[in-house]
C-alpha cells in the first residue's frame, strides 16, 4: 500500500490538495535523519559546493 493510500485513502497526488500536500512535505522533512549528506536543498553535498 502506498503512502497516499495509507495516510489519506487516495490513489494519486492530484487528489491530495495543496494544504495536505504541504503538510505531508513538512512531515516527511521532519522525519529525515539529521545526519543527511545533503546540503539542505536536496542535493548531495560535495567538497567545494554543489556540482
Features:
single chain; mainly alpha
Please give the radius of gyration in angstroms. Answer: 15 Å
Helical element count? 2
Secondary-structure element series: HH
Largest sheet, described in full?
none
Please bin the fraction of helical residues.
25-40%
Average residue pLDDT: 78
Shape: elongated
Beta-strand portion reads under 5%
The termini sit apart by: 36 Å
Structural class: mainly alpha
Describe the structure concisely for a colleague.
By secondary structure, the chain is mainly alpha-helical. The protein has helices spanning 3-8, 18-30. It has two helices and no strands.
Overview of the molecule:
The chain is mostly helical and 51 residues long. The chain has a domain at 1-33. Helices cover 37% and strands 0% of the residues. The chain is built from two helices and no strands. It has helices at 3-8, 18-30. The N and C termini lie far apart (36 Å). The mean pLDDT is 78.
Amino acid at each position: 500500500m502506498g503512502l497516499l493510500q495509507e495516510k489519506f485513502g487516495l490513489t494519486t497526488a492530484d487528489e491530495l490538495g495543496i494544504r495536505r500536500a504541504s503538510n505531508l512535505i513538512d512531515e516527511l522533512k521532519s522525519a529525515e535523519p539529521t545526519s543527511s549528506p545533503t546540503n539542505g536543498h536536496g542535493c548531495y553535498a560535495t567538497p567545494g559546493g554543489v556540482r
